[in-house]
Queue: 4 jobs
Job 1
Amino acid sequence: QVQLVESGGGLVQAGGSLRLSCAASGRTSSPYAMGWFRQAPGKEREFVAAISWSGDTIAYKDSVKGRFTISRVNANNTVYLQMNSLKPEDTAVYFCAADGPRFGLGPRVPSEYDYWGQGTQVTVSS
């Protein structure tokens, strides 16, 4: 079992920045691919970014490319999502997820992830 806890959400004006963190605990000795997803009210959960175990393979949703950066520090069992140039349409609850054991990049489909955090709210005002 792996437990995930997100933090770093909040209220920010358009154009601002936030950095989300996802701390993992439990069975963290196994390799896991990690992903960030988001869910806005009335919408389905959608893929935002994913990173492989080593961090050398990364993927992003097209609308966040160039604005968001996913990274991880395995020694600290933490994954980050740096979000810059935020837009009102980025408003959502953001979730981190773990898929594994897996060395490569995780999938973009939420249902294929094994573990989820509780989410952190990000609100971008115009």
Note: The chain has a mean pLDDT of 96.
Job 2
Amino acid sequence: QVQLVESGGGLVQTGGSLRLSCVASTRTFNSYAMGWFRQAPGKEREFVAGIGWSGGATSYADSVEGRFTISRDNAKNTVDLQINELEPEDTAVYYCAADAGAARFTGRISLYGVDYWGKGTLVTVSS
């Protein structure tokens, strides 16, 4: 069982930045692709960004490409999401995810491939 705990959410103005962090409780952190998903009110949960086990492979949703950057530190069991140029449409609960499948080589995590979820952290962007 892997526990994922997110932090870093909050209220920010349009154009601002946030850094989300997720720490995983596992001795085999580098066995997982790690990623971030988000769910806005009334919408389905969607993929935001993913990173392979070594950090060398990353994948982003088109809507965040160029504004969001995912990174991981295998020594600290953490995965971060740097969010820049925030827009009101980025308002959502952001969830950390771990995937032990093939995504660990590509960073491309599918919603139904996630093995573990965090409880989420809320990001609210005011206009």
Note: Residues 89 and 125 are 8 Å apart (CA to CA).
Job 3
Amino acid sequence: QVQLVESGGGLVQAGDSLRLSCAASGRPFGTLSMGWFRQAPGKEREFVAAITWTGTFTYFSDSAKGRFTISRDNAKTLVYLQMNSLKPEDTAVYYCAARDAGNSGRSYVTGTYDYWGQGTQVTVSS
């Protein structure tokens, strides 16, 4: 079983930056591909970014592209989501997710992830 714990959320103003962290445990981190998703009130959970187990490949939603970066530190079993130029529409609960590194499913599909964190709230004021 994999445990994921997110941190780093908070209340910021539009244009500010935040870095979210996700600590993973319970399984060798190098066997996991990681993703970040978010869910705003009244909306479905949506893909934000993903990173392969080596960190070689990263993927972003259109809304995140150019503003967010995803990275991982396999030695520390951490994955990060650096969010710059935040907008009010980025307000949501952000979730860290993990799946087997061999999973060939689309990285932006929620159902391809087996493990989820509890989420961290990000609120961006205008």
Note: The radius of gyration is 13 Å.
Job 4
Amino acid sequence: QVQLQESGGGLVEPGGSLRLSCLASSRTFNMLTLSWFRQAPGKDRELVACISPNGGVTYYHGSVKGRFTISRDKDKNTAFLQMNSLGPEDTTVYYCAAYAASEGGSISLAADRYDYWGPGTQVTVSS
């Protein structure tokens, strides 16, 4: 069983930055594919970024490419999402998600592939 806990959300002005963290309580952190999703009210859950277990493969949604960076730290059992140049359109709840992968380069864009989810952290971009 893997438990995920997000932190780092909050209120930021347009153009500002936030760094989200996802702490995973797992002895098999190095075998987890980790992703960040977001879901605004009335909209489908959207994959923001994904990183493979070995960190060598990443994916970004087109709307965040060049602004957001996903990373992972195996010594801290933590994944990060650095978010720069934030705009009001980025306002929503962000969720960390994970699944146990069989290959180090595994990523998935499908939400139903993910077995573990954090409770979410609110990001609000407003002046």
Note: The longest strand covers residues 92-100.
